Amino acid sequence: MNRRLLVINEKDNVGVLLEDCKAGEFCCYKDENVKALEDIQFGHKIALKDISRGDIVYKYGEEIGYALEDIAKGQWIHNHNMGCRRGK
């Protein structure tokens, strides 16, 4: 079963899950399927491509942070692997 995914802007490298997704399930993005590498809950972010440590993370066309470590396509993105410079 393909899980629904929200991607607003072409430069986004993450998508927002519109429903819970279990590891091994696929999320639809354009004509591409992204396989979830771990369980990810509704409303959380999934990497649409590999993101290297230090790379900018884009959601809705805006910079929301940077990768604290290498993040694989399909991996959950949250504060355990993404930092933010806002307000610092």
TrEMBL record:
What is the official name of this protein in its record?
SAF domain-containing protein
Q: Which Pfam families match?
A: SAF
In this chain the SAF domain maps to 12-83
Q: Does the keyword Kinase apply?
A: no
Task: Supply the SMART domains for this chain.
Answer: SAF
Q: Where does the sequence pass through the membrane? A: none
List GO molecular-function terms, semicolon-separated.
lyase activity
Q: Which UniProt keywords apply?
A: Lyase
An example GO biological process term is: D-galacturonate catabolic process
Source organism (scientific name)? [Clostridium] ultunense Esp
- Keyword Isomerase applies: no
